[in-house]
Amino acid sequence: MNIQKRQDGFTGQRMVYIPDHVEKQILQDPRISDLYITHIGHFPNAKGQYRDRPTGSEQYILFYCKSGQGRISVEGNETLVKSNNVFIIPPNKMCRYSSSETQPWDNYWIHFTGKNADLYTPPCEVLLSIEETINSRIEDRMLIFEQMLQNLEQYNNFENVLYANTCLKYYLTSIRQIENFRFTGDKPAGDYFSKALSFMNNNTNKRITLSELGEICGCSSANLYKVFMKKLKCSPMDYFLQMKIQKACRYLVNSEKRIKEIAMELGYDDQYYFSRLFSKHIRMSPSQFRNNEKS
User: Fold this and answer.
1) Are residues 113 and 132 in the same domain?
2) For residue 69, what are the β-bridge partners?
3) What is the pLDDT of residue 179?
4) Which residue among 43, 47, 95, 101 is least crowded, i.e. fewest CB within 10 A of its CB?
5) How far apart are the first and last CA of the chain?
């Protein structure tokens, strides 16, 4: 069978490569120089992804397969990676990895390094499975990843870089000490917080009030507001808007949809109102953003 393999370039992909001048700043900052991200990304439905590294990578490479399947080979030892599996390749080891052709993986990945990286890193070359349980907190971990990626997309502001790399320590610890991460005395809040995140993620085409979201999650709007402020430092409605804006960015870069169509996809009948919201958060109009990203 002839398989078409691709190094990268997937619909909806997001990735950030930290430039040398930013890495130099990181190395001068003792708060994060011991552990920091050099590359990070998300390849959804990455059919045909293939990478062969005969001499390995200079950094650790972490893969989190949210769904689908892929194969990772390290020094000739191959592992099948499935949904909710984590696999870490240590530096300078011959490796190869690829997505399944029939069940392409939804692949979240991080390259990281630092003088103390080994102290934070979960076991390498071992398949780590994150079982879905009532207290698995998978969505919480995905949120940490999203915070790292979003902040590093704005790496020209070093405060964003500082925040993202501080989150990396927490992210790796959530895997390395998974039982501690799962233990929480706030299970009811965790339940409706997870419900809110799940609803938002699956309903970016809708407009909803805080009161309506509270009813859907089975809690008061006041309690939902409190838990979002505690966990994310923003209100539920602000976070929902951020999700919509990020989805709009992906549409603008990866599709030919008109701005009016994108507005409708995100629940806005008035494209001009949508454009004003977008401009307020991204500091440029949707058209300017599209032109800049495609130039």
Assistant:
1) yes
2) 104
3) 77
4) 101
5) 37
The pTM score is: 0.62
Predicted confidence (pLDDT) at residue 22 exceeds the cutoff of 90: yes
Are residues 102 and 214 both part of a single domain? Answer: no
CA proximity to 74, closest of 94, 54, 92: 94
Contact 15, 8 (CB under 8 A): yes
In angstroms, the CA 146 to CA 141 distance is 9
Is the pLDDT at 186 greater than 50, yes or no? no
Count CB-CB contacts under 10 A for residue 104.
Answer: 21
Tokens of 129: 């499975």
Q: What is the mean pLDDT of residues 136-147?
A: 88
In Å, how far from its chain's centre is CA 252?
19
Domain tally, the chain? 3
Geometric angle at alpha carbon 267, from 40 and 145, rounded to 5°: 15
d(CA 12, CA 31): 33
CATH number of the domain residue 156 falls in = 2.60.120.280
Range scoring the smallest mean pLDDT among 74-83, 135-144, 202-211, 275-284: 135-144
Domain identity same for 144 and 265: no
